[in-house]
Design a protein that fits this description.
The complex is a heterodimer of chains A (287) and B (201). Chain A has 287 residues and is mainly alpha-helical. Chain A is built from ten helices and three strands; from the N terminus they run H-H-E-H-H-H-H-H-H-E-H-E-H. Classes of the chains: A mainly alpha (287), B alpha+beta (201). At the A-B interface, helix 1, strand 1, helix 3, helix 6 and helix 7 of A face helix 1, strand 1, strand 7 and strand 8 of B.
Chain lengths: 287, 201
Amino acid sequence: MTANFLIGLREGLEASLVVSIVVAYLVRSDRRELLRGLWSGVAAAVAVSLAFGALLTYGPRGLTFEAQELIGGSLSIVAVAFVTWMIFWMAAAGRRMAGDLRSEVDRAAAGRWSLVLVGALAVGREGLETALFLWAATRAAAAEGGGTWGPLAASALGLAVAAGLAYLLYRGAFRLDLGRFFTWTGGFLVLVAAGVLSYGVHDLQEAGLLPGLHTILFDVSHVIEPSSWLATLLKGVLNFSPTTTVLEGLAWLLYVVPTMTFFVLQARRRGGRTVPSRTHVPSGSAS
Amino acid sequence: VTPLHSLRSITLPTALAAVLLSSACAVNSTGEPDEAGGRTLSVTASGAECALSATSAPAGTLSFEVDNAGSEVTEFYLLGDDGQRIIGEVENIGPGLTRNLVVTVPEGDYYTVCKPGMTGEGIRAAFEVTPSGDDTTTTGLDAGLFFLAFVRDPRSGFIDVQNRMARHDALMEYLTFTSSALFAVPPGPGGGEFVGQALFA
């Protein structure tokens, strides 16, 4: 049942890592009032995905393959746009925080709705695929003449472990001083977003909307087997695919190089000023 | 926010979502192989086998019910006659699970592929789709859109927007107008009034 566990773990990590970083950021920058927006986005994405998945699994109509790939692919690319916005918003806000000059304008301009969208997209982009997988496991458990609970239990455990890892990341982020926190989480998010972008490109290639599905940049699937633990973690965290097409690789590079350069330059400029290290103790309510 | 603005901002995304959903759905199978005229096929995938209940089907919306009887995660693909172009796929079929691939396919030669462990070329077999006279250019769905707008003045709040959409909205190409209706909604009654009393004053 390891296979089902790993699927749950992978899908869970893809959904929860971005959320955990954003939560850590909001708590550390003393913007707890925005947590509610983020969580409502997450909750909406989970609810809509599960409901839509159930409708497609048990209802009279299923979703065509093209539509499913288009939904997953385009939502991923939109999610990249929002996460990128989030990274620079975080960096800018971190800079302002250095002098503790956070104004009410900043508070309002950030926009509750943007965070609702960040939460909804981070979880929702792969939500439908995960929901369809979970409902298939549920159907296996409820099958007539003795269903098997194994797959459902294993995938639920995978999701739970992913949530646990995301929580550990959230706690871990509190051990960094504030300046490092903004730099490292931002840099990490750039890599995550780049992975999501190349994943979205792959989905659109599979849907036939973008060409070059068989023009492979590299194939290391004999070294990193796609069904292994390592591949699951790489895929879940960075969306690394052992078989990467040229277009995916290109999208990844074209995103990472300018975004990371810009981000590092900003962080350097910020580095001149020393950031006072404030120690926040994460409270249970934020998790 | 005027009614006009709120209407304009919600109509297009709503219409897009509705079009996407209505054109993207396909009829789920009922599980009975014959009910869909041979268009429901079962696939039993294991580490070494990719067994289909039939190697051909009539053109139309096909439903492949892929059952993973192996111990590894598997993927199922329907590929074009070049053995590369993906017509349809379903991923993340964990051991013990059954997942469906619903795809609309015109007549022609295809390949079915199971990919246990998600590696390599997979277990391939030829698959034929025979002529059936079914329209495979669309999903053949009987569906429509329904707009509802609450506006202060239809002359400025609704007709204007509709005219704009008719002229500029790229989706109009896919729409066939059927009918519309206009309803007057009187203001709510105050204390001791009856509904619409203000209109008679």
